[in-house]
Specification:
By secondary structure, the protein is mainly alpha-helical. The chain has a domain of 86 residues: Peroxidase, domain 1 (Orthogonal Bundle), CATH 1.10.520.30. It is built from 6 helices and no strands. The longest helix is centred in the last third of the chain and has 24 residues. It is globular and about 40 Å long. It starts with a helix and ends in a 17-residue tail after the last helix. The C terminus is likely disordered.
């Protein structure tokens, strides 16, 4: 039996590795958002950060949301985060932050996207 962290790592690696088939621009936008999303979540909250990506994000950044949704076991993370009760919302936020650790790591090791690259992708930096 795998730990939750191992499950996140395995799934994130597979998903990020598939992004290598996309354009370098899409890889950079995906990886850049993987680095920036934890900061957005800490500053504005999960629902607001997801809303920001939905309204201003690129298709590659939307794909990151889809990947995170799958990792935390939620079909539509945007809707779920808006409608969840407080305890569910807090758990979802913690799960997303735990999963994002792996997306950030693999953005660097697989996609070669360092923190701070393409900071204007998808809108203004928070």
């Amino acid at each position: 039996m795998l730990t939750k962290d191992q499950q996140y790592a395995s799934l994130a690696f597979d998903q990020v590795n598939k992004m290598r088939n996309e354009s370098k621009d899409d890889q950079t936008k995906y990886g850049s958002m993987a680095h920036r999303l934890p900061v957005l979540i800490r500053k504005a909250g999960l629902a607001q950060a997801i809303g920001f990506i939905e309204s201003r994000g690129t298709p590659a950044q939307q794909e990151l949301l889809n990947h995170i949704s799958e990792a935390v076991g939620v079909e539509d993370i945007a809707e779920y985060s808006r409608k969840a009760e407080l305890t569910e919302y807090m758990k979802l936020t913690n799960d997303v932050m735990a999963a994002l650790v792996w997306y950030k790591r693999f953005a660097v090791s697989v996609l070669k996207v360092e923190s701070g690259m393409d900071e204007d992708a998808g809108g203004e930096t928070q």
